[in-house]
Design goal:
Elements: E1 5-9, H1 19-35, E2 40-43, H2 57-67, E3 72-79, H3 85-98, E4 103-108, H4 115-120, H5 132-143, E5 164-168, H6 171-180, E6 184-186, H7 195-205, E7 217-225, H8 229-247, H9 270-276, E8 281-283, H10 285-299, E9 303-307, H11 313-324
């Protein structure tokens, strides 16, 4: 069984660290991923979160591209309701001209923030969700060889044919990706409940398109991989603390790990956190390999995309390296 491995990076701003640190860490992470044969690195658009520095996703990707030479880079994803499709076509068209053949454009339907911040992003808040498919089609039209949105032209953008992915945590995005013949990535790293149903819906309803002739699906999982089980579990307490903060509406930097999780999270909070993070891969490479094999067999995914929610940068890069060494890893032939 061979499945490509990729990375989703939230460019975390850790406790005691700056945004500048987070940006440098993301570039180092991409370099590490490239050196160890990962397929792609994606960054996610979130706004107003003290623990995430990838709000200006296209700008971050320009820096990631300059720090690497061959790995695919892209958005996982751009939250399209926040933006005019023309703006995204120009941004990702520019990236495609800077780094030819390396850019992916993953799109999400949620705002990626609270409603007050969404309004501050200056898109019309009325009927956003209803226009999502139209916006995706408009974006495709700007990026196509022949302009399909005349008389408007995306320069840069037209003719770049940047591959578009649809991202989601529900059946809606699975159905739309199938209808439009686009690759689909499911956010099982934080919303696992509909994973299997969404994949089944996507595959059952897929219609070939100019971009894709058969279904292609990836799924996200968190990973904390270390030389010992104790070390992996210790570093994963950062992710558990982060989800506790989200449940409490506490907007804080990405938390440091703790030896005693019960000292910072009440016992009543843990069942919900554990349920949300149930697909996380935490442990030694040998232990993670077993769980990962089961996940791939259960889902039949074409690609795995890992996030590494680890506060310590050295430990994070070590986890990337150890995960790449798992036998399931398929070394890539770069095109």
């Amino acid at each position: 069984m061979s499945v490509p491995f990729s990375i989703l990076d939230l460019a975390p701003v850790g406790e005691g660290h700056s945004v500048a640190d987070a940006i440098q860490n993301s570039q180092a992470l991409a370099q590490c991923a490239e050196a160890h044969g990962y397929q792609r690195v994606w960054l996610a658009e979130h706004h107003g979160m003290r623990g995430v520095s990838s709000a200006a996703t296209a700008v971050m990707l320009a820096g990631i591209g300059a720090a690497t030479s061959k790995i695919r880079i892209g958005s996982g994803g751009v939250m399209l309701p926040n933006h005019a499709p023309l703006v995204i076509a120009e941004q990702f068209g520019t990236l495609a001209e800077m780094y030819p053949g390396r850019i992916d454009l993953g799109l999400g339907r949620a705002p990626g923030t609270d409603m007050a911040t969404a309004r501050a992003l200056r898109r019309n808040m009325g009927g956003q969700v209803d226009t999502y498919q139209d916006d995706v089609e408009e974006l495709q039209g700007y990026l196509a060889d022949e302009n399909k949105v005349k008389p408007i032209i995306a320069v840069p953008g037209q003719g770049t044919n940047v591959p578009i992915w649809l991202l989601g945590s529900s059946l809606y995005s699975a159905q739309l990706a199938a209808h439009m013949g686009l690759p689909f990535s499911f956010a099982s790293h934080f919303a696992p409940d509909m994973l299997l149903e969404a994949i089944n819906v996507y595959r059952a309803n897929f219609r070939p398109s100019e971009q894709l002739d058969k279904p292609y699906v990836s799924a996200g999982v968190m990973a904390s991989v270390a030389d010992t089980q104790h070390e992996a579990e210790y570093h994963f307490t950062s992710a558990q603390r982060q989800f506790a903060h989200l449940r409490r509406n506490a907007n804080r930097p990405f938390p440091a790990p703790v030896e005693d999780l019960s000292s910072v999270i009440a016992a009543a909070e843990m069942p919900m956190i554990n349920q949300t993070l149930r697909y996380a891969m935490v442990g030694t490479p040998e232990r993670v390999q077993d769980k990962l094999s089961q996940f791939i067999e259960q889902t039949g995914v074409d690609e795995m995309i890992f996030s590494f929610p680890i506060h310590d940068q050295r430990a994070r890069l070590k986890a990337v390296e150890l995960t790449a060494g798992i036998d399931l890893m398929q070394k890539q032939d770069w095109h």
